[in-house]
Model the fold of this input.
Amino acid sequence: MFWCSYYKNETRIFLLLTVILSAMLLPAFSLHPALPSLRLDEFVLFSGFGLYAARFVLDALRRRERPEPPPGREWLRATAGRLFAALVASYAVSNLYAVIFLDAAYTRRDAMELVMYFKYFLIITLVCSIELTAADRLFLRLTASFALALLLVFGWGQHWNLLGLDAWLAPFFNQAHWEHLILGNPARILGAFDNPNVFGLFTVLALALLVTHYYFADDKGKFPLLLLAAIGLVIKLEYLTISRTALMGIAILFALTSAWAWTHFQRNRRVTLKILALFLLTLILFFTSSADFLSRVAEGLDFSNSTSLQGHLARWNTAIGSIWDSPVFGWGTQKTAMTTLVDNEYALYTRRYGFIGLAAYLAVFLLPLTVALRLLRGRPLGRKKAAAAAFTVAPVERGRPFTGAQIFLAAYVSVLPSVLLYNFMAGIFYHLQLMTSFCLLMGGVYALGARAAARKT
Done:
C-alpha cells in the first residue's frame, strides 16, 4: 500500500508536483495509434510503482528490511485500503456474474477499469506518504497558483483566438468538442481539458480552495482584495466555458461557504462585508457576460423546452431500465456492448456494478467527508479502542480564523455537494484528468487523518 516508502521525501514531492501540473495543464498523448492515450501523471505514477515493485521483490529475495511506512498506516489500511478493496471486489463480482449468468463479454477495455482504480489509489497514498514543511507547503501553493494563472491566460487566449491558438491547438483535443463547441455559436473554451463542462467543474474545485481561504484565513485585519480579484477571474473563466452545471456548482459552493462563514464568525461586520462583496462581484460578472452566455443559461432553466435536459432524461430512462433488470450485481463493465453515454454517473455505475457497487462508489466521496468533519470538530476518527488519538488538526474554535489544514478540510467539505450535483449530469469518477485533481484533495484529507491517528496519547 505504501509504495513510496523506498523514495526520499524530496522525490515524493517531485512526483506530487508532476501530478499536479499534469492534471492542470497537460492533455493526454498517444504512444501508438493502437494503444489508448496516456497522461504524464499516469506514466509517472505507474513507473514509480513499477520501480517500487522491483525493489520490493529484490529486497524480499535478499531478506532486507523494508523502510518505515508513513504515519497512520493502520488507519489508512482501515479506511483507504478497505475502500479500494471494496471497489475491486464489487468490480470482480459484477463482471464474473455478468460473464457466467448474462453471457457478457470481458475485454481488455473492461480490464482498464482496474487500472483507473489503481491510479486513484496511487495518488491518494502518494499524498499521504509526504512529510511537508512550511516551505514545502508554500512551494506547492505557489506552483498550483502559477498553473492556475496559466489556465486563465490560456482560457482567454482560446476565447479571443490570440496568436491563432485555434489552429495549432485543435489536434490535441477531442474533435467533436472542438468543432461543435469551440468553433460553434456560442464559442466555449476548453482550457487544458477535453470538454468545456469538465473545465467548468475544475474551476469550481479551484474556487473551493480560494473561497474558503477568502472567508476563513487570518487576513490580519485587511480586506483580501487580491484574493477577491483572483476569485473573480476564475468565476469569469467558468462563464467562458458556458457550463450550466458548473454554474450551479458555484452557486451551491458560494451559498454553503457564505452561510458557514456567517455562523462561524457570529455574523460580525467583517464577514458580512466579505459576503456582500462576493455576492456583488458575482452579480456584476454574471450580468455583464455575453448575450450568448445569458441565452444559454435561460435555455437551460426552461425545463419544458430544454433540448439538453430532454436528452439527459432520455439516457437516464434507458439506463434505469437496464438497472432494474439486474439491480444487485449489475451488468458488469461491458464497455464494448453497452454505451457509456448515460449523462449520470450514479446510473452508469449502478448499471455496471449494481446497488452493491453504488455503495462503494458513494463511499469514495463520502468517507473523506466524514474524516474532514470529524477533524474539524476535533472528534475521534475510529471506534472507541482506536480513538485515543491526539489530533494534529486542532478542532475549529468559533469566531477564530482557520489554520491552513482546516482551510484545506473546509474546501473538501464545501465543494463536495457541487461534485455530487455534477455527477447527476455528467461524472467526475470516469474522467481521469478531473478525478486526478479531486484525488489530490482526497489525499490531503486522508493524510491529515492519518497524522491525527498516528499520535497516541
Q: What stands out?
A: The chain is about 70% helix and 0% strand. Confidence is low (pLDDT under 50) at residues 385-391. The CA atoms of residues 407 and 449 lie 14 Å apart.
